[in-house]
Specification:
Length: 588
């Protein structure tokens, strides 16, 4: 028996035989061709592109009606990448200029793209490198296997098996959906990669980013996958199996309890009402949000509309996407574009050079104020969608009020234009700001007076405040949501909102992590926005909590200078017996 550690995604525990597939085409030594073979290599490459596109299109058409809608969205993105002329042109140029074989040229282009994506500071966008890798891997497979024969096909069933692979493409997922696999383990992937999202949608356990999984796990061996811990146990002994089966039974019982909470209010035992909202990226996420008990959307990330495209999305295209979400939920907070100069958003053209440190460069509201035409188009689409339901507009990465002045001036211009065109919209759309830069958190009182609402983005706030990149293995041990500076900044924002009677939500991973729910309640947070899958667990904690009883623990955690002691106090808070008190008792 031995265990491997990766990143757990999805949910639950699965135990079964490993089904290991070797689908990666490794990069061989770079091979050059003769001058008179260049046209032949270009033809081979274009044929592989065409076949890959056709196969993806067929798979897209084969997506079953009951499949998670994210699968179709990912397939659409992959088809766009394969059909993007820039992929074809860049690879052909390498073949022509360097006389490389089609495979070698494609691998060289992949490495160029990988460097660009790895320099991106935004974690979500950096994870898109996996999609590029997968698309290029599929084209490489066509080049290699068209010469060497077809790949081995899997059978019709993976019933209860643990699928172990280098990576899984959306097309792979469609293929495996009807095979009843118990879980999957991949060498690649991150908590925000498409494989993680799909694991959540399929409601199965998975472990991603487990480097060497294919190498260390033998086909047919018994494997246990724990999504909560990210641990994969290979050939567990009898005692370990007994423990795992008991934990799985407990998990399934707990999930049944959580399902019963869907239509109940998120209210504490002492009567404090809490609003639970969903973070979404696609209109297709609406169903998941509703099924989880979300009453609205606290963060609609709009970047996906701009990624993996040949052309920018039109105003009408954005409007239709926003309208679909707005019509389905009580209210929706749409975050404006959070991209930067290091990302390609304009038909494959750079909006600037790759920054040395793009997280501190031209991104989010800074990028939007530099690219006013793109920003104006998005604002028009948002305001048009506001005619179909309650909409809030959230501006990311504000650091000073001068930026807000420029944004509001542009919004006023957009509203005048819509009025002159007799376009129906809601003129009272609330404007809020993401508080994710320490400067904004420190001056939260100024932003609270100038804005309609505030939203704390803890993911970036923690990274900026502690000067660390949480996906950098060398420094991610410093990533600490309980750091005194972080708690004080969050408290400062909550206090500013209370002082000026402005709603404050929190939409980072802290909101999704039920370990912090009671702490945040005690600090004064009443609006949580999170991944839809986390809502039932957080709601249960809220309904089992008493805000008054958390206050002493919160004071101790806030005042404690030692990180280990803060964790101890948090543990005490989370296991504390919470009495049922009446509101009158609390106030007396």
């Amino acid at each position: 028996m031995f265990s491997l550690q990766g990143t757990g995604v999805g949910s639950g525990i699965a135990i079964g035989p490993a089904y290991v597939i070797q689908q990666s085409v490794t990069a061989a030594a770079m091979r050059r061709v003769e001058e008179d073979q260049i046209d032949q290599e270009i033809a081979r490459f274009e044929s592989a592109l065409k076949t890959t596109s056709e196969r993806l299109a067929k798979t897209r058409g084969d997506v079953p009606d009951n499949a998670p809608k994210e699968i179709a969205a990912f397939l659409d993105a992959h088809i766009m990448m394969v059909d993007d002329p820039t992929l074809r042109d860049a690879t052909v140029e390498i073949i022509q200029e360097h006389r490389f074989s089609a495979e070698s040229a494609l691998i060289m282009h992949r490495n160029q793209l990988a460097e660009i994506f790895e320099n991106m500071e935004d974690e979500y966008l950096r994870s898109k490198k996996d999609d590029v890798d997968q698309v290029i891997q599929q084209i490489l497979q066509q080049l290699v296997f068209s010469d060497d024969g077809e790949q081995d096909e899997l059978g019709d069933s993976l019933d209860g098996c643990i699928l172990v692979a280098h990576d899984l493409t959306p097309a792979d997922t469609v293929h495996f959906m009807g095979m009843n696999m118990g879980a999957f383990v991949t060498n690649l992937g991150s908590p925000i990669s498409h494989v993680a999202i799909l694991a959540g949608s399929l409601k199965i356990p998975a472990v991603v980013g487990l480097h060497g999984a294919v190498r260390h796990i033998a086909h047919g061996t018994t494997v246990a996958v724990d999504a909560r811990t990210g641990k994969v146990i290979v050939e567990p002994d009898e005692e370990t199996l007994k423990t795992l089966y008991a934990r799985r039974e407990e998990y399934e019982r707990h999930q049944s309890e959580l399902l019963a909470l869907k239509d109940l209010d998120a209210v504490t035992r002492d009567g404090e009402k809490v609003t639970l909202l969903a973070n979404i990226e696609l209109p297709e996420d609406i169903e998941h949000a509703l099924n989880s008990g979300a009453v609205g959307v606290g963060l609609y990330r709009t970047e996906y509309l701009f990624m993996n495209r040949v052309q920018l999305p039109t105003e009408d295209e954005q409007f239709e996407a926003y309208k679909e979400v707005v019509k389905s939920l009580e209210w929706v907070t749409i975050r404006t574009l959070d991209l930067g100069a290091d990302k390609q958003v304009d038909g494959g053209r750079k909006q600037g050079n790759v920054a040395i440190n793009p997280a501190l460069g031209l991104r989010a509201v800074r990028f939007c104020l530099r690219s006013v035409d793109i920003f104006r188009t998005q604002l028009r689409a948002i305001y048009r969608a506001s005619a179909f339901g309650e909409v809030q507009c959230l501006i990311p990465m504000l650091s000073n009020l001068d930026e807000l002045t420029q944004v509001t001036a542009l919004i006023d211009e957009v509203k005048r234009d819509l009025d002159s065109e007799n376009v129906v919209y809601d003129p009272t759309v609330k404007i809020g700001g993401m508080i994710e830069v320490p400067a904004a958190a420190i001056t939260a009182d100024q932003f609270a007076q100038a804005l309609d609402f505030l939203s704390v983005g803890t993911n970036d706030l923690i990274q900026y405040t502690l000067a660390i990149d949480r996906v950098d293995d060398d420094v991610n041990y410093l990533y600490d949501p309980l750091h005194s500076s972080i708690l004080r900044l969050i408290k400062n924002v909550l206090d500013a909102g209370r002082k000026y009677d402005k709603p404050v939500s929190l939409c980072g991973e802290m909101a999704s992590d039920s370990r912090y729910t009671r702490l945040l309640l005690g600090m004064g947070l009443r609006i949580f926005s999170m991944d839809p899958g986390a809502i039932p667990e957080v709601k249960q904690i809220i309904r089992q909590s008493n805000v008054f009883s958390t206050l002493d623990y919160v004071d101790k955690i806030m005042a404690c200078p030692d990180s280990t002691r803060r964790l101890d106090w948090l543990s005490h808070l989370n296991v504390a017996e919470i009495p049922v008190l009446k509101t009158a008792q609390v106030q007396s």
